[in-house]
Design a protein that fits this description.
binds zinc ion, about 30% helix, six-stranded mixed beta sheet, Aminopeptidase, alpha/beta, two-stranded antiparallel ribbon, about 325 residues
Length: about 325
């Protein structure tokens, strides 16, 4: 498998950041949206106004309110940069917890210390829990920290978009009681401090959560993990990430098809992406990453100060929220 991996290095700000992106088959990119995509200048610019792709009314997206979700994205971005242990992230932590509690979620703020190339860093995962009638757990993930090594980086798409979407999902899911509990984890420390590829300098929050749940025995109760990361950009096209658990990806893509959104959940595969789902996959838990990384790289916005709110389509946040909400329903039926 590793022979087909390809490292993509991008200069960003003063430093160099990297991300491991797989390319298919014989080391060639699997799609036009991969690393050989045309330069940013030939990519259609996003509409000037963020509202140029408004969210559909909530009754067209299963009750998921895309306008509310977009407002949450805007709110997260409004706190400014939010790298781990910063003033910005402390405000975001308080905001997220307050919102979740207002929806009736049981909220756990899990403080921990991560050993990073920059030393010991205080971090916090926030887990919203909606109790089920049985022991099973459906676990949803998003990271809410932002990359600290690029100045003025607010990470609207990476990943305030999925964070805002998960807050709106919590509003629904914490008001329901299904056969399985639904946990929504807002993860700290996904981004690297110095170099993603060295010394496990990434995904601190998800590794901490997976380790804790393993020790407590809760990990065995998890039926499925769904991670969303970078799901709000204009022109969103989400391929199936090749490491993701096949039956779970098929369930979500089938749901998207049923809801009429195979334009967003496209019938294409992309190679391995290193992301928070790997912390659970490596422990044998069925896990899926819903992400459109390559298009955002191709557009020239990924890990740059241009990752701003105007790059986010309220419509696309609504569609992904709708698909995830309905997919949770499908999982509840599958594991009742
Ligand atoms: Zn990132």
């Amino acid at each position: 498998m590793s022979a087909s991996w390809k490292k993509l290095w991008m200069a960003a700000g003063a430093g160099v950041v990297s991300c491991v992106i797989a390319c298919g088959g014989s080391g060639q990119p699997t799609s036009a949206s991969s690393t050989t995509a045309p330069p940013a200048t030939s990519v259609a610019a996003p509409p000037a106004a963020a509202q140029s792709e408004p969210a559909p009314p909530a009754d067209q997206t299963g009750g998921f309110d895309g306008a509310k979700a977009f407002d949450q994205v805007a709110k997260i971005v409004s706190f400014g940069p939010r790298p781990p242990a910063s003033d910005g992230i402390h405000k975001v932590q308080e905001y997220i917890s307050t919102q979740l509690k207002s929806f009736g979620c049981q909220v756990e703020q899990q403080d921990f210390h991560a050993s990073t190339p920059k030393g010991d860093v205080a971090m916090q995962n926030i887990v919203a829990k909606a109790a089920g009638t049985g022991p099973g757990i459906i676990l949803l993930l998003t990271h809410y920290d932002s990359l600290g090594s690029v100045e003025n980086f607010v990470g609207a798409e990476d990943s305030a978009s999925s964070t805002g979407m998960m807050i709106e999902l919590a509003r629904h899911l914490c008001a329901q009681k299904g056969p399985n509990s639904v946990w929504i984890a807002f993860l700290d420390g996904e981004e690297s401090f110095v170099n993603w590829d060295k010394d496990n300098d990434h995904t601190y929050g998800s590794r901490e959560l997976a380790a804790r749940m393993s020790v407590s025995g809760e990990l065995k109760r998890v039926k499925a993990v769904i991670l969303a990361d970078m799901i709000g950009q204009y022109g969103l096209k989400i391929p199936k990430e090749s490491d993701s658990t096949k039956w779970l990806a098929d369930l979500v893509w089938k749901t998207a098809d049923r809801l009429g959104h195979k334009d967003v959940f496209i019938n294409q595969e992309v190679g391995r992406i290193d992301d928070d789902h790997q912390s659970f996959l490596s422990r044998g838990v069925p896990s899926l990453d819903i992400i459109d990384l390559n298009d955002y790289i191709s557009a020239g916005y990924w890990h740059t100060p241009q990752d701003t709110l105007d790059k986010i389509s309220p419509r696309n946040v609504a569609i992904v929220g709708y698909v995830v909400l309905e997919s949770v329903g499908e999982l509840q039926k599958k594991f009742k």
